[in-house]
Specification:
Number of strands: 0
Number of domains: 1
Mean pLDDT: 87
Shape: flat
CATH superfamily: MetI-like
Low-confidence stretches: none
Helix content: over 70%
Largest sheet: none
Distance between the termini: 44 Å
CATH architecture: Orthogonal Bundle
CATH topology: MetI-like fold
Structural class: mainly alpha
Strand content: under 5%
Order of helices and strands: HHHHHHHHHHH
Length: 236
């Protein structure tokens, strides 16, 4: 069991690296898509709905295979400089998983923006704030608080979704577990260890999101202090 740990630790590091890239690019893609939902332009609203429909509905594995195995069949990719991007599994995996994550994240962002209390926005506008100041000081902080928990769930889905990267030769955590299985013919130990690693990553994300929530939402901070005080009194 101890001999499996180095390769699994390396695989876990690759999983975290993939997750970090997907989180960044997924957000960059999702933000303008989400803002298009309430655009005055019909084309922007149509693009938002189409993007969310396609990339939430298409299985992640299908997206990955289409990009990694399908794009080299296109002349515009194979015979141009795009080939330097699509011939490497890392960019293909990051692109496929970022698009999939952006489909969900666009819904999270647009839902959080819609749930910002209209009264606060109207009061800010009535006070003479510019549109940018209203967004920066009222809309964005409220939307972050409202969307933080669903975003945490999406982060967990991203971590677990990185397991498909092993199918395009990226030896992340699941790939390392499979490699250990093929070497040892022990199907249980490597997979159990991989599951423990995944649970540790998910536990860390969950508690990080909870800590951020407590720092951003005063009610949760006060409730947490109340529970600590109650425990301290009961311990006496």
């Amino acid at each position: 069991m101890v001999g499996l740990l180095p390769s699994l630790i390396t695989g876990a590091a690759i999983t975290l690296a993939l997750t970090a890239w997907i989180v960044v690019f997924g957000f960059v893609i999702a933000l303008p898509v989400a803002l298009g939902r309430d655009s005055r332009h019909t084309s922007a609203r149509w693009f938002y709905r189409s993007f969310v429909f396609v990339f939430r509905g298409a299985p992640l594995l299908v997206l990955l295979y289409l990009i990694y195995y399908g794009s080299p069949q296109l002349t515009i990719v194979r015979d141009t400089r795009l080939w330097t991007f699509f011939r490497d599994p890392w960019p293909c995996a990051i692109l496929a998983m970022s698009l999939n994550s952006a489909g969900y994240l666009a819904e999270i962002i647009s839902g959080a923006l819609r749930d910002v209390p209209r009264g606060e926005v109207e009061a800010t506008v009535a006070a003479g704030f510019s549109r940018w100041s209203t967004f920066r000081d009222v809309v964005a902080p409220n939307a972050i608080r409202l969307g933080l928990r669903p975003y945490g769930n999406e982060l967990i889905f991203v971590v677990k979704g990185t397991s498909v990267a092993s199918l395009v030769t990226i030896i992340e955590l699941m790939g390392a577990a499979n490699a250990a299985y093929f070497e040892t013919y022990d199907p249980i130990t490597p997979l159990l260890l991989a599951a423990i690693f995944y649970l540790g990553i998910v536990w860390s994300i969950r508690h990080a999101i909870m800590a951020i929530e407590r720092s951003l939402i005063p009610e949760l901070r006060v409730a947490g202090m109340g529970r600590q005080l109650a425990r301290a009194r009961s311990a006496r």
